[in-house]
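Task: encode each sequence below as structure tokens.

Item 1
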Amino acid sequence: MMPGRSALVIGLLLVGGSLSPTLAYTNFRVSPTQQSSTANSAAKQENEARLLEAGKPTERELRGGETHVYRVRMEAGQFLHADVVHRGVNVYVAAYDPDGKPVRAVFTVSGNYGLEPVSLLAEVSGNYRLEVHALEKDAPAGNYAIEIKKLGSPTEQDKTRLAAEDAFFKGVQWRALLGREARQEELKQFESALSNWHAVGDRYGEALALQTMGLTHVMLGENQKALDRYNQALPLLRAVADRSGEATTLNGIGLVYDRLGEKQKALDYYNRALLLRRAVGDRAGEGMALNNIGVVYNALGEKQKAHWRGLR
């Protein structure tokens, strides 16, 4: 059974504190207090919403627990594509039709730094609402930029892009479920997303699909397939200058080598990830990288280095 459309999942995290890599699966859902489920709430939020227009990007600070609301006028049959680029704060984006019905929930599992692509095909005319939510209630302030990249009649390429996003988010929903069958289903969806993003020349989308598939193969214990996917993602991430995504991918490669017992290779990739985390100012990612380095030193019996890394 497919999980509900509101299921938002963070996949694999390497968390500190115990000097051991940990698989952490957290099923995030939009709570009743976060969703605008009533007509009165929808009307109130529309009155407070900022107008979003094509070609006019908006950049704002977002703190933990905050939601920013935007409105976009769309005619029936129109296609919209917007990007939300976030730095220092983990976000998800929800879209609602003129009646307040949720039509999209976007969460790419990119952490505090990344891009959330939002594509819509309007079924009716009216004001559509986009909401940018800080995922964590107590998170420190970060920044994001939201921009409409296209608003107009859909082309075949637009429909392919929409299919890519649909497939990717179905894959993310499958990740909410445990079991090998669920992992195989999510791989099918990510493979479909990869194919469609490749067809429209979206290198960021391709990299996102490949990186996420690498993580799925890690969950399945398919180490070589994970390495293949991660290594396919790296040049694409470098081409679009996504250093945070590159760091995440390097960290994934380090994890695979750690599992394979190739500790020096694991250290090399973890250290490369650490440098990128520091370059973008990602303190949480830096802490994760330091913990992973400490894990390897601990396994090598170099307790002092493991302790020193844990204190950095």
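Item 2
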Amino acid sequence: MSNSLTLNELNLDKLSYIFNSESDYYSHLNQILTDLHPFLSNYDSVMGNVELVLGEAINNGLTHGNKGDASKQIKVEVWMENTVLFLSVEDEGVGFNYNDVPDPTLPENREKLTGRGVFLMKSLADLVVFESNGSKVEIHFKL
């Protein structure tokens, strides 16, 4: 498979997934990654980052956004434009102040239990954009 193959070339403009907060998110994450593998098989380093960042975004939505409420859902969308992979994860929570997440690398924050996931996402992706008051995140990976 060549590096120039995209989802759009195979008429897969967007992959969409919806699941509730009580479900096993690992099985959903594995399904998404399995669906993406044919398109990213030549991008091993990106695939590893996609797995970590997408897993973190889904877990944040389930845990912090929906607070495990089984009546609430997570929506994940995946698409490509040119050489950029886009991931969108949206929960049904009230959001959070994404500008106020403490930097976990600062000495005063190293023992805090929060902020590492957002830091990880921003470190591994090319761009992370929070929308809808923080209840939706769009993540970009350049291929």
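Check on item 2: Confidence is low (pLDDT under 50) at residues 1-6. The helical segments are 25-40, 44-65, 116-124.
End of task.
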